[in-house]
TrEMBL record:
GO terms for molecular function: hydrolase activity, acting on ester bonds; nuclease activity; nucleic acid binding. Pfam families: VRR_NUC. Keywords: Hydrolase, Nuclease. The keyword Signal does not apply. Gene3D superfamilies: 3.40.1350.10. InterPro entries: tRNA_endonuc-like_dom_sf, VRR_NUC. This is VRR-NUC domain-containing protein.
Length: 93
């Protein structure tokens, strides 16, 4: 399962819930998660997409840790089957 395919499914699923999954690129700060997921009522999370079974790079792991330490939820998704559960979790956060 390709990362791009999973990413497309995430973007569509978030849109279906009335939100947006904006691409996140931060010039000068490599390794940040791929998408910022914004859902109704101020719910948000960062999502790193990976091809199925692919591991995070060390810098990606570090960025996620930094964001979590700041109190922001971060998810790693490597399968389309995880998307529904992740969105539910963000919505109920
Ligand atoms: Mg990625």
């Amino acid at each position: 399962m390709l990362e791009k395919y999973i990413e497309k499914k995430l973007v569509q699923a978030v849109k279906n819930m009335g939100g947006m999954a904006a691409k996140f690129v931060s010039p000068g700060l490599d390794g940040v998660p791929d998408r910022i997921v914004l859902l109704p009522n101020g719910k948000m999370a960062f999502v790193e997409l990976k091809a199925k079974g692919k591991k995070l790079r060390p810098l990606q792991r570090r960025r996620i840790k930094q964001l979590r330490n700041l109190g922001f939820p971060c998810y790693v998704v490597d399968d389309t089957e995880q998307i529904g559960g992740v969105i539910d979790e963000i919505l109920s956060s």
